[in-house]
Amino acid sequence: MGTSAATSETLTASAGPVSLPELYERMTLIRAFESKVGELYRANEIPGFVHTSLGQEAVAAGVCAALRDDDYMATSHRGHGHCLAKGADVDGMMAELFAKGSGLCHGKGGSMHVADPARGILGANAIVGATVPLAVGAGLSSKLRKQGRVAVAFFGEGAVNQGAFHEALNLAAIWSLPVLLVCENNLYSEFSDSRRMSRVPSPAERASGYGVGAVKVDGNDVAVVYEAALAAVATCRKGDGPALVEAETYRWQGHYEGDSQPYKPDDEAEAWRGRDPLLVARKRLAGHEEELDAMDARAREQAEQAVERALAAAPPDPEEAYAHVFSD
Amino acid sequence: MSSATEVAEVRYVDALNQGMADALAEDERVVLMGIDVGAGGGIFTVTRGLYERFGPDRVLDTPISEMGYVGAAVGAAMTGLRPIVEIMFMDFVGVCLDPILNQASKLRYMTAGAFEIPVVFRTQTGAGRSAGAQHSQSLEAMFAHIPGLKVVIPATVTDAHDLMVESVRDPNPVLFVENRRLYGMRGDLDVDPLPLGRARIAREGDDVTVLTWGQMLRECLKAADIAEVSLEVVDLRSLVPLDRETLIASARKTGHLLIVHEAVRDFGPGAELAASIGEELYDELLAPVRRLAAPPVPMPFSPELEKTLLPSAEKIAAAAVALRAES
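Above: the input entities. Below: the structure tokens describing the complete assembly.
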């Protein structure tokens, strides 16, 4: 296992083609979107299950900023942030969560199945670990068709105990596929402390068993995540993939919205809130407060507008229930 | 070179091979993946020569990791390839069901048609060779029960080739079930070619309609030769799509319907067929719909015990005679 080249000393506000304020802007949009979603879910306005990534925004924003528009991305049940960071339409996503006909998937996917192929988004996926083989398949497509596209899979540390992760990682390794595996280690596999679920403390360590390079980074520092992702994506793009990035972070909310989290120690969440990825970025961007406040306000406005539009939208046409089972 | 003119009479296994070769030659997005399908030519030689002809970027040997490579085939199908992926024995779906059950068959629907999933899951089954309970199961009912998945089962040499080519051209996920007891069967290509989704009247008859597919077609045709009543044998060719029109027309004509399959009877494919045709023809059939299938026990190793459980030409003929006598 390697270590991250990214440290606070080596970074500037504009380390790459995406500037730190821009990264902040993506994070604050995710925060505003999911805060609104959580609130409305608790008010019974949104059906089904909702899993938020509040507190983990830096991973989505940092990794997706290192991607091209045509790169592929597959994510888990906790995928709102990744989809937004990859460019999914905010109104279309919100309408999907509200099960409306104007949703990205016409109200047939919901929170756990949002997809947008125009943005390379292969979809959120409700089976833990399943996105890893799917992303490996996308990487295989890219390689065999010589497209130069990288495929990213986001998953949690809980997924690292699924066979699908190991089988797909090995496959990506033997075929040197352009696949970036991003493990968001938020410490909890659903309700359980992940440190009790494996003798190997770090998912990144697993990668070395497959001959795959991995780095472990501070997942709450968007600049660090971005720099690590840029390096890993470059490795994949030039044919030396796959690569794995483990981002250490923390899930503020429960496994799902409504989970009261009796399994977490009292002081833990508070300590991690002190490492809020938005605050971490703000510290780096001292002097830009006015600009960042304006971004926060715009993001909240965008989320609220998306909610208004979703509430006003019609449910799917009943015929939609029968459509798209097969392609003609 | 056209597949039809190359060989006058070929084996089922050669027809499958030629179908895959034609599919690989016709569309460069087609790839073949699986355990030992490449340099090794496949454990039943079904893929022999394809690696040499199309190269390692089109014919990919995989590790023994069905969950990984079957899942990757689905991801590849979402992103522009058209994989044929082999699951060596149908029983092995137990270690890679998620990509079929939750991914390939759901992703198009869940995304309102945003993706097409043109993937062929090739597998084979076939009891009667002492392969034991973990290498002999006919599980097609499980898959026909999953919306969004086609289930194709070729029983003739012509269909081994044609249904393979059509399954690869199909924009949907297809479970393609070969039967290893048919691999050595000889026959001609281009005999009464039919599109995927159409059932074939394999033998015309008057007294009893026998509905079947896969290896049991041969037994049913033998039964038609020896039975004391006239059998109309219908080869389903695919469970999904189901050619209701042909089935119902035949059952209506004879007034007697016998369903024969190698899969276990209880909650098996025959149950659904009997129910749906029975609903449609309640007052036209002259006797109850009957089923002849393996009883609900695991397939034993002993050849004698296997024979005890499996339908045979003699048992089918006797069941048809008994059914005819019910009216």
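Note for the figure: Chain A has one domain: 20-319.
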